[in-house]
Structures are given as C-alpha cells and as structure tokens.
Amino acid sequence: MCMIAPKKYGYFLSIITLCIWLTSCTPKGKPALALSTENTMALDNDDIEDSVRVKAAHIVPSKNQFEALKDEFIAFVHFGPNTFTRMEWGNGMEDPAIFNLKNLNTDQWCQAMKDAGMKKVIITAKHHDGFVLWQSRYTKHGVMSSPYKNGEGDVVKELAASCKKYGIKLGVYLSPADLYQIEHPEGLYGNLSKYTKRTIPRQIEGRPFENKTTFEFEVDDYNEYFLNQLFELLTEYGPIDEVWFDGAHPKRKGNQRYKYRDWKKLITALAPNAVVFGKEGTRWCGNEAGATRDTEWNVVPYDEDPRTMNLFADITDEDVGSMKKLVAGKFLHYQPAETNTSIREGWFYRDDTDQKVRTTDDVFDIYERSVGGNSIFLLNIPPNREGEFSDQDVQVLKETGQRIKETYRVSLLDGADGPKELLDQDNKTHLILQDKEPIVEVTLPKATKINRFLVQEHVEVYGERVSEHALDAWINDEWKEVASATNIGYKRILRFPEIETTKLRLRILSSRYTPVLQHISAHYFKSRPPQLQFSRNSKGEVSIVPKMSDFGWNPNGENAGANLNKGMQIFYTTDGQVPNSSSSLFTDPFVFGEGEVKAVAIMNGEKGSTATFRFGIPKMSWTLVESSSAQKKHEGELLFDENPNTYWQSQENDGNKSVVIDLGKELEISAFAYTPPTSISNSMIEKGTIFSSQDGKVWTKQDSFTFGNLINDPTQRTYTFNKKFQARYIKLQANEIAGNGLKATIAELDFY
C-alpha cells in the first residue's frame, strides 16, 4: 500500500498512478499515459525518483522542436568579412570594403545541400564582428557599404530565394555579441543608455515595412537595435524556421544585458514555426568537433523554469539526462541537441591548400552517430571568396548524400511479417509495448544481409522512455545478440558487423515507462575495407587501425573507418611477406622493435590494399641530453614519445636550434626520419645537420639534409646517410626553417 500525502492534487494523481503501476498484478494494467504530456514540467519537493521517472516519460517536444528533429541533417553557412581576412573572429572595425565579393551563387549552395540530404540552412546574417549580410535600415556596417553590387547586394535575400527554389528551409544566425557596436565611438552596445518604452520596428523614412505589426518593449539602445534587426529578418526574408543564438563574447562593454524574453516574444509572433537554438528550443551538444554522447537524452533538468529564463548556460557534461541528473533538478524540459561542426578546419573559409576538408567517411560517420543518436546534425560549409562552396566540399556533400540514400532510402524490412504499425511509413502509427518483457519480432521474406538497424520512439506524443535495448538476429537456428545501446528517443541507429538472417528481435531491456515505438527498419551499408595506419607507443607496442583523417581542427577522437566497418579483420606480417587471411590476426597491440610491418584489412571476404610501415629503433631507452631551448609544454622529450601530436619547439630567439639524444647504447645508424607537426606550418625544419658521438663530448658531422615542400606536404620525411656509422649520441642541428620561420619543431625523430 502506498502511504503518500502529496501537497498537490495533480501530484497525488500521478503518485496513485505510479503505485498502481508498481503493484499491478498484470502487465497489461500499465497504461501508455499516466499524466498529461508537457514540454516542461515542474518537480515538487517531495517527488521521489520513481515519480520523477514517470514525469520524465511524459515530457514531449514542442511542434517546432519536433520539426527540427525531423530535419535531421542541416547546414550552417559562415560567410562575411572573415572570409576575406582569413580570420575566425573579426575585430568589428574591418572596412566593409574588405567584403570584396564579385559573384554569389546561392543556387550552388542549395543544390549541394540538397544533394547531401540537408533540409535547412542557417546563415550568419551577423557574426560577432557586427557586419550584416542584408540591407538593414539600422546600420551602415554591412553589405550595403561593400563593393558587392555597388552596395545594393543582399546575401540573405539571394539565399532566401534559392532556398524557396530548392525546397530548403531557412534559418538565421544573429550574433548577440557585436564588436562593431562595441568599438565604434557611436556604438550602441554597452553605451549605458536608459531603458525606456520603445516601438519595434522603429520606422525609417523611405523604407516602410510591408508587415505592419508593431511591438512595445522597455529596452535600451542595443536591445532596440537587435529587435529592429530581428524584425527585418523575420518579416522580409521568411519564412524563418530557426533563429540561432550563441553565447560567445569576444569582448564585453558597459555591463550590457540581453532582453531575450523580449526577443522571444517577437520571434514567436513573427516566425511561429522557428525553433530557437541556444535558448529553450534546441541546445549545443557541448563541442564543435562532431563528437557525440553514447546516451543523448533530450529530457534535461533545469533549476529554473526555462520558459521564463533569460540566460541559458551551455550544457556540456557527458551525462545530460540520467535519472541522477533529473532528480537533482527542479524542472524537466524537452530540448534536443544540435551536433555542430565544420566540414573545413575552421568556421570560415581560408584557402583550398592548407585548410583541410573532412572526408566522406568522417561526415557520414558523424551523421550516423548524431542523427542516429537522438540529435540533429548541423554541418558548416563556408563559401569561398568566389561566393561558392569549393569543389572538394561539394564532392564530400554529394558523396555523403549518396551514402545516406543508398543505405537508408529503402528498408530491408519491406514485406516482412511483423507489427504493421512499426513497418509502415506513417509517422502517426505506433505500437505500445505493454508486456512485462517488451519484444518486437519480425520475419523477413528471405535471408537478407543487414548491418544497420533503425528504431524510433513515438516521442511526438509519448516522449522518450527506453533506457536500454538490444537487437538479436536468428543465426544458425538460434538467437544471437548483434547490437545493444542505451536510449532511443527520436531515432537510434544500431551499427554492427554484417549478418545474414531471416528474423530479427528487438528487446527493450529497461524503460522509464511503457515503451511506445513508432518505426523500425533494417538497412545495409556497403562496407569497404579501409586503408590502415600504424602506431607504436612508448612501451614499444604496435597498433594497427583504420587510417584516421588528418583533419586537425577540433578532433572528435572517433575513427570513422572503424565505426563504419564493424566486423572488419586486420591481418599482418613482420617478415616481409604479403599478408592474407592466413597471416597473424591483429587483436591487441604487440611489442615490435625495428623493422617493417605489413597489414591488410579484410571485410566480408573483400581484401583491402596492403599497408606497410617501417619502424625505427625502439625508443624506450632514449633520453634527452639537452635541447638548446624549448617552449613551455613543448619540451625536448616530446620528440621521441611516439606521439606525433606532441612536439618539441625551440624558442624564437634560439640561434642554435638543436637537440642531443642518448640512444642508450652504441648502434649502427643508416638513416633517420623527421616527422613535422601538422598543427603549425611556420617552424618545420627544412635544412639541418646530423652529428654523432660515442661519448657525448667529441662530435663528428655525418651529413646535411634538405626536405622540400614541407608547408604543402607536412608528412614524415626519411633521409638515408651517405654511409652507415656507429653512434650512441645524436645531435640534430636545424639550419633553415620552412617559410623563413624563427622556431624549430620536431614531432617525432626516428633512426634506422
């Protein structure tokens, strides 16, 4: 018997329902809804964990949030003065003439987005520098003062027209931070103006608005300015489906406050379908790398009511919505995450040589992890100075879209025998799993190869409830578990090694309340044996893995090749033989000294290309005798730590630029390899000299070396000495730095 005396009648009903559920003798007695569903729900002081769990199961997305979830894969476009200055953040005082745009091809943008399968684009209408990309009535710091179309150009207008043409939704990024309004002598940001009642929009002679709606707000100068610009964007370029705010503050002034609740009233009235990012609508995933959480709950806790909050802190913890987190909150709120990152190294375009572009594998892997992990994938594609997406970016987008279509356009469960509510394409049908052990089983018409399984809860009506699930396949006349994961939410994509089966079984292992599924489907991704790469750690242990992208900006730590090719096997040899399926199977790192390792990946019987790597003398016994100088956190020991991501770097005023290493014992040396760091390009050693010694005191010059084109090709370089020599001590002297740099760097040094 439940002895509970809650303070509120509604709460009393929820606890009674909970008690009925917990004490019910029949599983069928558990209803699909015990409470009315809400987008935001308060927790009471006497709520217990079980009642919080029930409430969490009844939090649902708003209409706009659900539409944002259905968009799944969307585009970001960072464009402005930074495109021409090659800066990530401008200072606000750039001459508008720097935006020297000759051509603009927003049709090309939208065609590339459509090819990728993107459904929405968000344009940086105003970035932190305060430069506006539309013909605003309220500033001259923008495209109206640039050479583009003699000041008559309007980037947002052209993009809006292309979006309508190609069926792409439009969103706007309007930076609350504004360096122009901070730095300009007559700037409005933080000017300590009084808060008075003002009419939005402020009428400008000769520029009337077609939309005659007006608002009254008590605001200061900058909030009035911001609201006026919001009014322009939301009434003259729409429909607008997302308004994107971030919390970046390159500089503050005058204790400026943002009156977001006023902004929200205006957005709700003028763009009723727009979801607001960075506030109570959608949230940042917590990184800019495309990293995803294994468990991404969209029901999150707040200490205040998010419907009335003005300031929103970033939610960056690994644990966002576990029961431990929810119980500690005061409000539960549905708030999807946007997994945002850039296709290029940086948010703005710099060049097509040094600025690397993500591979198709990388983008497709992020797509499956984000969209298939209960979040929205927001990928930035920065236009170049010709007003177009660069060819390499377009190719990656096209290939990604092809993979998405090839993999997910058709369900391999079409024609299967199972719950029709889950197998149809109707997003209103659903299946309530009331059994004590909820299971969904489907029988396929014939044996089918599968390596992807997609499952969705009916979050629009019932919220997200499943907290753990597993997938079984009928293999060799028995059920075999092939994949498992935690929550489901809007969408979960399970990836697993290729199987051939006639039956699948989805088991819900735990849930917050009665599970309600909306859709399931099975798919096949054509895996390709990936290229391989080798590494050796400080203990001399060799690892062989799918080749990682050399994309160096905000690395997410994921190995796309491994993620996409579940079930791949790697075979290797150390005796010079070409590896095959009869060679040693790589399972764990193995100790290996100097010599050559060859390896091959085999996937579903298909053999990839053979990879080869020559390892130098093991470095376990090496010690640094001295370095002529070193930057803090870039000490000399880092040049032989077997980690190419760390490096020694000399001081700028070091006229010697040298390092001395004790190899631990006397060895015969025939060659050496220099690995430059890839994160910097102005301190790679182009020319140098190698000296040897038996005692570390008497030195013999052995050879001078030259490495060309390092800036464009910062890869490991090997130099073979004119003749072999015996040495225990080695000195490397840097004589010339690429690009006339003033510092010397070494990521790794190897000897053979």
TrEMBL record:
SMART domains: Alpha_L_fucos. The keyword Signal applies. Keywords: Glycosidase, Hydrolase, Signal. PROSITE patterns: FA58C_3 (PS50022), PROKAR_LIPOPROTEIN (PS51257). It comes from the Bacteria. The keyword Signal applies. Residues 610-752 form the F5/8 type C domain. It is an enzyme of class 3 (hydrolase). Its EC number is 3.2.1.51. Belongs to the glycosyl hydrolase 29 family. This is alpha-L-fucosidase. The lineage of its organism: Bacteria, Pseudomonadati, Bacteroidota, Flavobacteriia, Flavobacteriales.
